[in-house]
Design a protein that fits this description.
By secondary structure, the chain is α+β, with helices and mostly antiparallel strands. The protein is built from 6 helices and 7 strands, in the order E-H-H-E-E-E-E-E-E-H-H-H-H.
Amino acid sequence: MGLNWAEHTVEIAAPIQTCFDAITDYETFPSWQSAVVDTEVLDWDEHGRGKRVRLVVDAKVRKVEYTLDYRYDEPTRIEWDFVEGNGINDADGHYLFEDLGGGRTRATYEFGLEVGIPLPGPVARRAHKSTLKASVEDLKREAERRAASAAAAQPERPAAAEPPPETAAEMPTESGSTAREARFAEEVGIKMPEPPPAAQPTAGRADDWASDGSHTVAELPGVLVGEAASIGRRVARRGIRTAQDVGGGAAEAGIGAARRAAGAGLDAAGAVRTRAGRLLGLDRDDHHPR
């Protein structure tokens, strides 16, 4: 009599792996494959997939039972070999899956069957094609249901909130940063280093003074002498204040220091005057140009 072949192809709105997992989930067939009455996985392969499976199917004209050994090329191909049957003499075929992209799959089921009961050819072929087509359509519904359930189970990712813009009061400044660091150091018991003392201006040597452009050369001697005398007076006042502060027997030493400072100021003024005189060509005695 030979095998009676039938084939059916359908596009499924589900990823290829979802389709493969559904059609190899043999123990659930009775709940979504309309023609399958019962299944039993008799052996498993090393990947936990059904290797030998017994199926009881309502083939329209009567119920048949058969056992198949499965081979897999996951997730694109499934093949089987006929082991034994009741009402079935032989069976062969394969399932093919093609990834169409975008979460869609093309499924093709080709199945050859030789029944073991006397039936007219046209009746057997019509029953076989009808059962095979229903099986593929059942797979489509089940795979799409699983894909929709998986999508619904994934939590939505909330949109990342943008940080509020910093106000002028919140924007870090050098002084604010220093104050925060000082507070933090105080909390954890760290002593902040003292800031370095401000550099004190030092009086330059009288011989290095020169005009800054605000006076003429003729006015320079008098200006420099006045500056030197002013420095001497300031130094003298510091010496007197020092003497007054230390009090008692140190007062005389402070006054002496003031006098020496005043003398140094006068010496500096004399040196400046001498240099200015040389620059202007003045005689030491008459202070007139030669």
